[in-house]
């Protein structure tokens, strides 16, 4: 594989950049693989990469119905954080933060990781107490957390509404300075390029039509481009998990819902951290291009539409304007939607299943993008070793049966409860 | 914007309704032996498929009645609405 470096950049400048290698091949499916990953998004690509890199399993195919990174990997708001209180979430996410910090070097691809910090705003004394508790828990797990008072928040985001007569005054906030954003497409492309270079076949425009299961074991997968014999299959299909589960006669604790995001027209730099509104569900950051990137609540009913409805968008943006009134003067540039695999307790599932050779990675709710490297790393371990890693023990499928729920925020499918 | 025909009030906009989830899920009958799997299926497990979906909505800002709606989860087309105690 051609290394991306300043020297190669100069060298290729002499041939007008016409002779760069393709970043990855457009593979056609072989008859048999050791492992097939279904879903060519961030998690699937990362899983294939870590299977090859950490476990030396390179006879791997990624099957993608559409195009690489065209689902939620291309639709998220690029926020990366590990500000969790529960150990299972905190340790998993902080392991991921480490991978994010090293990612550009590791992949030889600039993913533009920008640790600009995230601030969760608090709007009451009670909320400050809750944030102090979460911050302390984070620090006990080695994650950086700073509790900010009103004046300190004002220093960082002076454009927020600090006037006296607002419905939800800003009391302070909890900041994770090491959190941030990254270029989402670059993450997919970086993983794809490295995985391809180690022998992974990336097969796009290939829909899974069925599975070959006999005697409780996976024997193969049927696709629109032919049958493939395989002993191990990993599902990384986010919002399409329910569809594939039905083909496997499985019923899972996940519902598919629609989440919207939007950007404004680009403006000059005004916001240099990620900020979330504490009295509702709204988050905002400013992209490198200058657009204000915003998102919030689910549309609220089961949906595969991949495009949103106006009432929810209006509701979310009302919260945004309450928090930062200047937003009302900006024009909206684009809105879009993606379909989320909403688990019932708001936490993901990375586990084996009752079918031998079938592994499940789903339930990412609002937080799939930030988990990309940690999810890929632990899922690759689970597939390669046929047992879960300590980091994803808490993300078991059986927890809904045993009662060990990971209901950190209670942000599952039933948004009206939270 | 969805337009939902409340069987009690007629056609109203989505803003007046709140969502109540899959209406095809049946609570296990009381006074009978209930397996853990039955409870799991009732509390947590959902099919949530692409296509026709029978679901509960509540006409919260209207008559406050719960109703059943048959809707396509990909196109949002609404085929039929019923009172909560009626079956498709």
What do these coordinates show?
The complex is a heterodimer of chains A (418) and B (88). Chain A has 418 residues and is an alpha/beta fold. Chain A is built from 10 helices and 18 strands. Chain A has helices at 6-13, 42-55, 87-107, 125-140, 150-156, 184-197, 241-247, 310-323, 372-385, 399-402; strands at residues 32-38, 60-63, 79-80, 118-122, 146-149, 172-176, 180-181, 201-203, 208-214, 217-223, 226-235, 254-264, 274-277, 282-286, 292-302, 332-343, 349-352, 358-362. In chain A, strand 17 (349-352) and strand 18 (358-362) form a beta hairpin. In chain A, helix 2 packs parallel to helix 6 (184-197). The longest helix of chain A has 21 residues, at 87-107. The mean pLDDT of chain A is 96. With 88 residues, chain B is mainly beta. Chain B has a single domain, classed as Folate-binding superfamily (Folate-binding fold, 2-Layer Sandwich), CATH 3.30.2270.10. Chain B has one helix spanning 36-43; strands at 3-6, 10-13, 18-22, 52-58, 66-72, 78-83. In chain B, the strands form 2 sheets. In chain B, strands 3-4-5-6 form a 4-stranded antiparallel sheet, with no helix packed on it. In chain B, strand 1 and strand 2 (10-13) form a beta hairpin. Chain B is globular. Chain B starts with a strand and ends in a 5-residue tail after the last strand. The mean pLDDT of chain B is 95. The chains are: A alpha/beta (418), B mainly beta (88).
Strand content of chain B is 35-45%
Backbone CA Rg of chain B: 14 Å
Spell out the helices and strands of chain A N to C: HEHEEHEHEHEEHEEEEHEEEEHEEEHH
Outline of chain B: globular
Question: Keyphrases for this structure?
Answer:
heterodimer; A: 418 residues; alpha/beta; 8-stranded mixed beta sheet; 10 helices; 18 strands; 26% strand; globular; B: 88 residues; mainly beta; Folate-binding fold; 4-stranded antiparallel beta sheet; two-stranded antiparallel ribbon; 1 helix
């Amino acid at each position: 594989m051609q290394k991306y470096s300043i020297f190669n950049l100069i060298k290729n400048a002499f041939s007008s950049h016409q002779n760069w290698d393709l970043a990855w091949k457009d593979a056609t499916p072989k008859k048999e693989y050791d492992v097939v990953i279904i879903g060519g998004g961030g998690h699937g690509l990362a899983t294939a990469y870590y299977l090859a890199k950490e476990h030396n399993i390179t006879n791997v195919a990624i099957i993608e119905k559409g195009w690489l990174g065209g689902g939620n990997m291309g639709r998220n708001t690029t926020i990366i954080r590990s500000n969790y209180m529960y150990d299972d979430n905190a340790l998993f996410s902080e392991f991921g933060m480490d991978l994010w910090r090293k990612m550009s070097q590791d992949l030889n691809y600039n993913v533009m990781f920008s640790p600009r910090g995230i601030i969760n705003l608090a709007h009451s004394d009670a909320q400050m107490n809750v944030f102090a508790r979460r911050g302390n828990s984070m620090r006990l797990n080695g994650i950086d957390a700073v509790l900010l008072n009103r004046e300190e928040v004002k220093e960082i985001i002076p454009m927020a509404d600090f006037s006296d007569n607002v419905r939800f005054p800003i009391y302070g906030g909890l900041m994770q300075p090491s959190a941030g954003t990254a270029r989402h497409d670059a993450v997919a492309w970086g993983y794809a390029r490295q995985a391809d270079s180690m022998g992974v076949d990336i097969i796009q425009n290939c829909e899974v039509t069925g599975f070959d299961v006999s005697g409780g074991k996976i024997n193969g997968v049927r696709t629109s481009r032919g049958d493939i014999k395989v002993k191990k299959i990993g599902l990384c299909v986010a919002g399409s998990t329910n569809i594939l589960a039905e083909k496997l006669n499985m019923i899972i604790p996940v519902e598919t819902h629609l989440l919207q995001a939007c950007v404004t027209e680009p403006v000059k730099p005004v916001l240099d951290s990620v900020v979330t509104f504490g009295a509702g569900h709204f988050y905002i950051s400013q992209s490198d291009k200058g657009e204000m990137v915003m998102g919030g609540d689910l549309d609220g009913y089961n949906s595969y539409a991949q495009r949103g409805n106006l009432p929810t968008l209006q509701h979310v943006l009302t919260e945004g304007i309450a928090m930062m009134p200047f937003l009302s003067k900006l024009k909206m540039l684009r809105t879009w939607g993606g379909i989320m695999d909403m688990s019932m307790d708001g936490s993901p599932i990375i586990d084996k299943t009752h079918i031998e050779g079938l592994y499940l990675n789903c339930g990412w709710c609002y937080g799939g993008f930030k988990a990309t490297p940690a999810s890929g790393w632990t899922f690759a371990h689970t597939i390669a070793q046929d047992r879960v890693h300590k980091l994803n023990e808490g993300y078991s499928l059986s927890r809904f049966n045993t009662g060990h729920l990971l209901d950190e925020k209670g942000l599952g499918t039933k948004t009206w409860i939270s | 914007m969805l337009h939902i025909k409340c069987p009690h009030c007629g056609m109203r906009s989505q803003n007046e309704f709140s969502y109540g989830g899959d209406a095809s899920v049946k609570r296990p009958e009381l006074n009978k032996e209930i397996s853990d799997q039955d409870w799991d299926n009732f509390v947590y497990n959902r099919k949530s498929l692409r296509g026709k979906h029978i679901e509960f909505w509540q006409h919260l800002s209207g008559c406050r009645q719960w109703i059943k709606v048959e809707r396509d989860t990909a196109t949002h087309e609404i085929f039929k609405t019923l009172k909560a105690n009626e079956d498709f």
